[in-house]
Amino acid sequence: MQLNPWALTGIVLVAVVTFFLGHRSSRSATSTHDFLVARRTVRSRRNAAAISGEYLSAASFLGIAGIVLKDGADALWFPIGFTAGYLALMLFVAAPLRRSGAYTLPDFVEMRLGSQGLRRFSTAFVVFIGILYMVPQLQGAGLTLATILPVPVWAGAVAVMVVVAFNVIAGGMRAITVVQAFQYWLKLFAIAVPAFVLCMVFFAGGGPDGFRPLGAPAPPVFTSDTTVDVQTDVTLHVTSDTFLYAYGRTDNGPAAGPTHWTPLAPHSVSEGTTLKFLAGTPVPVVTDSVADNANWLHPASGSLTDLLQTYSLMFATFLGTMGLPHVLVRFYTNPDGKAARRTTVHVLLLLGLFYLFPTLLGALSRMYVPELLVTGKTDAAILRLPSAILPGVGGQILGAVTAAGAFAAFLSSTSGLLVSVAGVVSTDLLPGRVRDFRVATVLVALFPIALALLLRSEDISLSIGLTFALAASTFSPLLVLGIWWRKLSWPGALAGMFVGGGLVLAALVINVVSGYTGGWAPWFVNQPALITVPAAFVTTYLVSRVTGYGRPDHVHDIMLRLHAPDPLGFMRDRAVARFGQAEEKTRIAGRGRHRK
């Protein structure tokens, strides 16, 4: 691949600014309280920008456009669900969680139910969810750098983790708050500016090959002779007789010239095969994509299975957000419950604004980079689109802007995940000192890098959707019932997490095995939340009803602390007991009073 110097410059600038902001903020991080919860003095608007910055991950920056390219209107449920999850968080969790005084999710579990065993069990799920969520971020980083630079895929994953680990080790939560807030605005700029420019080019004439209609019911077609190099085994289907040139292996046999494909059966293409299509040829698509534009433009145009998958996705995203450890830990940094709720309102506005643009770019990708439907690498749509519409320096500069934004997405999300997981490991498995936090950061960083290099790279949005399903099936019942139902018991919470989490983990194992053995798994393996979330809630409720002995004796005092208005003064900071009274005195007297 030809080197794009603009893209390299953009990525280097993002890394340098990230280093600079992290180093500058880390100079005031001197205590464990700084590293875990930034002294609980983060302003609502800055915290909202930081939350949005870490939440807008690879799935948002690359995955949304890619899945819109593949699935069309049905893919709009992803940005809707990702945003709506914060509505559930605001209504049910944000303020009571902050009033609990906890500093990690397992700490809240122990505060509410008084069980050390349940705390350790929840710690295991926090660590697993965090590592599982980091894997697609690192795979997305590898895809981005390999798309715009002549480097191997592993280079992007390693580069992101090195930058992130440096900032986290230097200053923990206090350092990454400023970095993540900056990276939200950088990502918004990096996706909004190309969207505006490319839309203007589209409406002005449509780029180098003229205007391309999207409303035709037929599949998209290649507007010029196109060569596609297949880098992984794929299975394609066509809607009409298709003539092409293939060199390599197709349909389990050698191919070295003209090939004729019919719509009667799918066609397998092996890794390393080169396909050449003449101008005007309908675009073959991977088997899980929508082939014709008529169905692509209309939601719910598929079968009952597609409808059930949509409902399952909504369960996962709407309830899974409140179970993501790197999201919840940011609400511990607010001064009080009112500030936590105000932060969530700002997050809803920031996310809603951002998600307009990847949806738009995904629609343009259907017209200008349809060859990605052949390879299945639809997550690269945003990176390839600028050069497809604007060949030359203009497209390279816009591509550099999007690449810098994508790199910022990987950095911010991985930073939040690494801080949350390292914080849990350092406080639950280690003594909890600053040195322990730094050791935990290094240890935790090794696992997602290894998994990112070993596992198959699936669609980023679908991979993260499975992580949301795990969070929704484990921590969502515990948080909702723990905050709003005083009869929750620790055996009930344990049983619910075991059932919900166990079912999702089983689906994850089946999904991985299926990916290596022909993709035979049914739909609910990819989107299990429709089954696992109700099962977890019902199990938690029923077991809690028959295990009254597992309820803490002072449950009424706990519920009063969670729900009493902030001015009444019932909120207690659990960090005082662990880190000493000096921490709380510093926060109250501290550096910077809370501002909106």
Automatic annotation (TrEMBL):
<comment type="similarity">
    <text>Belongs to the sodium:solute symporter (SSF) (TC 2.A.21) family.</text>
</comment>
<feature type="transmembrane region" description="Helical">
    <location>
        <begin position="437"/>
        <end position="455"/>
    </location>
</feature>
<feature type="transmembrane region" description="Helical">
    <location>
        <begin position="118"/>
        <end position="136"/>
    </location>
</feature>
<keyword id="KW-0812">Transmembrane</keyword>
<keyword id="KW-0769">Symport</keyword>
<feature type="transmembrane region" description="Helical">
    <location>
        <begin position="6"/>
        <end position="22"/>
    </location>
</feature>
<feature type="transmembrane region" description="Helical">
    <location>
        <begin position="48"/>
        <end position="69"/>
    </location>
</feature>
<dbReference type="Pfam" id="PF00474">
    <property type="entry name" value="SSF"/>
</dbReference>
<dbReference type="InterPro" id="IPR050277">
    <property type="entry name" value="Sodium:Solute_Symporter"/>
</dbReference>
<dbReference type="InterPro" id="IPR001734">
    <property type="entry name" value="Na/solute_symporter"/>
</dbReference>
<dbReference type="GO" id="GO:0005886">
    <property type="term" value="C:plasma membrane"/>
</dbReference>
<feature type="transmembrane region" description="Helical">
    <location>
        <begin position="397"/>
        <end position="425"/>
    </location>
</feature>
<keyword id="KW-1003">Cell membrane</keyword>
<dbReference type="GO" id="GO:0015123">
    <property type="term" value="F:acetate transmembrane transporter activity"/>
</dbReference>
<feature type="transmembrane region" description="Helical">
    <location>
        <begin position="345"/>
        <end position="364"/>
    </location>
</feature>
<dbReference type="GO" id="GO:0006847">
    <property type="term" value="P:plasma membrane acetate transport"/>
</dbReference>
<keyword id="KW-0813">Transport</keyword>
<feature type="transmembrane region" description="Helical">
    <location>
        <begin position="184"/>
        <end position="204"/>
    </location>
</feature>
<feature type="transmembrane region" description="Helical">
    <location>
        <begin position="311"/>
        <end position="333"/>
    </location>
</feature>
<feature type="transmembrane region" description="Helical">
    <location>
        <begin position="520"/>
        <end position="543"/>
    </location>
</feature>
<feature type="transmembrane region" description="Helical">
    <location>
        <begin position="148"/>
        <end position="172"/>
    </location>
</feature>
<keyword id="KW-1133">Transmembrane helix</keyword>
<feature type="transmembrane region" description="Helical">
    <location>
        <begin position="492"/>
        <end position="514"/>
    </location>
</feature>
<keyword id="KW-0472">Membrane</keyword>
<protein>
    <submittedName>
        <fullName>Cation acetate symporter</fullName>
    </submittedName>
</protein>
<dbReference type="InterPro" id="IPR038377">
    <property type="entry name" value="Na/Glc_symporter_sf"/>
</dbReference>
<feature type="transmembrane region" description="Helical">
    <location>
        <begin position="75"/>
        <end position="97"/>
    </location>
</feature>
<dbReference type="GO" id="GO:0015293">
    <property type="term" value="F:symporter activity"/>
</dbReference>
<feature type="transmembrane region" description="Helical">
    <location>
        <begin position="461"/>
        <end position="485"/>
    </location>
</feature>
